Amino acid sequence: MGFNQQQKRKLKEVVNGQHTYFDQLESQINELKNQAKFLKGRIDENSKNLGWKEKLFGGSLGGNKELAELVKSTENELQKVESTLEKLGKELKEKPDIIKKELTNALKEIDSYFKKLTDDRTLHYDLYKASKKYEELLKKAHQGVIDALLFLSWEKLINHPEASEKLNGFKNETLKYQKIVDKLRDNSSTQPIPAANLIDLIKFDSQEVAMSSFKKLLSQTSKYKKYTDSFLIQSKKEIQEYRRKAYEEVTDQHLD
Predict the structure, then answer these.
(1) How far apart are CA 251 and CA 256, in angstroms?
(2) Quick check: pTM over 0.70?
(3) How remote is the C-alpha of 162 from its chain's centroid?
(4) pLDDT per residue over 110-155, tens digit each?
(5) Most CB atoms within 10 A, among 17, 20, 67, 123?
(6) 3-state secondary structure of 95
């Protein structure tokens, strides 16, 4: 892996921009911490001069109402500062992930291979998620048929008023899944996954045929899930290594 001078300038611009932003964020956090410390000191100092009634009722029942209101307003100010500190602290903790995200976006812009790799990963991830969902649907439908056969014969089950509706719903979900499979096959630059027309596998001519149909669908879905899972693991490692080398080449530092 190597980058030309133009690519390096782009990467440095992105990485340095992120480091500058987070340096400013840390500085802002430190200033707010000092402000919070100061406000707490003011609250403690002024609270010493308030009685319990003033502290409890804010001076509405007598006493130094002005001082009680000052303490209250200072507490409100402190609450806002602490809320901002919490928000900025969470953002600072995300620094490594944000830098990786911005570095990834920059690499996609300047490196066609990296863009192709991340695009392929997205396609495989979509199919992996869809495969898990469709697998659950298959298992639920299969179990539903098995449970129904405890009370009905196959003939009565297949002719049940709800059977046609549920079968159409199952076919519609299968078609949705098929589109995601086809999208990967048509757009991925990796080795094509095995073709399969899933709708053709749905057959309910008899109980035996139906059970065989579920088995074939589950087997095919399992293959897709296993294939995409394997690709996701492999591509994640490759993307991490690609990103790490790019970061080290322009900063001479390690990417956490």
Answers:
(1) 13
(2) yes
(3) 37
(4) 999 999 999 999 999 999 999 999 999 999 999 988 988 888 888 8
(5) 123
(6) helix
